[in-house]
UniProtKB/TrEMBL annotation:
Record carries keyword Transcription: no
UniProt GO MF annotations: DNA binding
Record's protein name: HTH tetR-type domain-containing protein
Keyword match DNA-binding: yes
Domain HTH tetR-type: 4-62
Taxonomy, superkingdom: Bacteria
Amino acid sequence: MSRSDCRRAIVAAATALVDREHPVTLRAVSRAAHVPTSAIYQHFPTSAAILLAVCDESFHELEAAVLAAADAYAAGIAYLDFAAAHPRRYRVMFGAPTSPNRHCGSSPASSPTPTAP
C-alpha cells in the first residue's frame, strides 16, 4: 500500500467509525483500516489529528455537493441533505453543543478526549 493509499485508508476508516458512533482511537482506526498502529503515526500524531482530517474530507464533500447545485435554493437543499445523510459527521464538523467531543473548531486544550459524538 502506498503512503497516500494508507493515509486515505486511515481517514476512510475513521470516517466510518464516526458514522457508526464509535470512538476514534488510534487502535480502533488501525483495526478498521487494516494497518498497524505504527503506520498511523507516520501520517497522524494523534487521534485528534485524524478527526481533523475527517473534518477536512467532510467539508470537501459538503463543498462539492453545494457547488454542484444549480442555484442558491438547490445549494441550501444540498447542504441540508448532507447534514441529514451524515448527522454524526456533521456534528463532528460543527460540534454539537452538548457533546464533550472534539470537533473541527475546537482547540486541543478544550477537548482532551477525541471521540466521535
